[in-house]
């Protein structure tokens, strides 16, 4: 099965991608950490390699199988939304900041990221001696060009959604290695927005048909919908990759992808179906890359339509779920308990008592609300969400019978799920990658959010969140986040029952892949550190 943004990839059809498609790609693969981590954003990214299989050595042709895309695959980091595009991004391009394997924000191309007192101006200084794949130096001019390009209203690039307060012309060159981001208003999230993959740097006059980056690999050949190949970038600032070359092959069918690994056609695959995990574990020469993440697959209830407009119904539905049973049956155990709050790695997320199944209380709440013997429709899609999420819907339907609720499951294809009715389903499912609280709020909970799938609206909550966006002091901001999270836990329209592990697989012939809390496959496609043993 596929996860988060890789699943959205299945949206590709004969129709042109819509603005919603690209923005959804931006939303789910964003993410961030609290501003306090960046105020000191002094932490440098670690580039060590796992030496558990012996000392890394140079050589070998690495082949990787990923979820298939289409003829619309792109090497433009500003337009990428699907798994092949994302793999290219992580191989070819770098951002000013980045998230490490523990989901901590670190400097990447930036040597320093320094805000002013209220977070309305950020001074960013580049590392010296950075080089583009064509040999030209990376300079402040490239930074200015990149962000003006992203914010160009005629370009519709997906990073724009993350850059609140920044407008074209307000990324200003100070000297050859220094820029200022001058915001219209304070935004404590800008440092994490700089880590979003859609905000990776491109050179002045970037041509997506002949793309140049400064990441660890140089694009050698590109066949959209089929495969793409790379050679190592010898001058990469973080150290050149160990392998001689890299081929990434697209598989539209998950069984074919697993078979390619088993037969030795590839050395690693993304998105292992959890139903195949035991098989991989029991096969000599194969191994799992199993990462605990903050990626979440909620049930979504529209709070502006009946019966979900009644808070008692929403509370009852959360009490229907036996979360561990659902993890065991839908995810084969590859997940951790959710407590109806996203952002598990955010330091402001409160430690509330774990919500457990209570069918009697659920029935009492439904009776009080006048909804005894309730029948509802739950919309899901294996094409858009994966087979595991359909399995979760089926488990929920069985569990709901214990509270006197009949759940009729409506399975639709990906094009319908993400068609004109997307964001209008009364009761459905969706998916998100790891994000921290305020970043997630901006994408799915606030006025103007592109993906307010629960139609959440709460003036008191909004006032708290708006204050948090402006609060530079980390302790005070975390207190506000805790208060806002508690409101969503009690009143919101999400059933966040689990955080799904990112499960990939690889051959014992290679080492160096690392589990990654972001939920991006194959350790953020971290092939720079992979070597043959």
Explain this structure to me?
By secondary structure, the protein is of the alpha+beta class. The chain is 29% helix and 19% strand. It folds into 2 domains: 31-243 and 501-532, 3-Layer(aba) Sandwich (D-Maltodextrin-Binding Protein, domain 2), CATH 3.40.190.10; 299-500, Dipeptide-binding Protein, domain 3. The strands form 7 sheets. The chain has a 7-stranded mixed sheet, with helices on both faces. It has a 4-stranded antiparallel sheet with strand order 4-5-7-6, with helices on one face. It has a 3-stranded antiparallel sheet with strand order 17-13-18, covered by helices on one side. The longest helix has 18 residues, at 474-491. The chain starts with a helix and ends with a strand.
Q: Into which percent range does the helicity of residues fall?
A: 25-40%
Radius of gyration: 23 Å
Average pLDDT, to the nearest integer? Answer: 88
Tell me what portion of residues adopts beta-strand conformation: 15-25%
Shape: globular
In CATH terms, the superfamily of the largest domain is Periplasmic binding protein-like II
Instruction: Fill in the CATH topology of the largest domain.
Output: D-Maltodextrin-Binding Protein, domain 2
CATH architecture of the largest domain: 3-Layer(aba) Sandwich
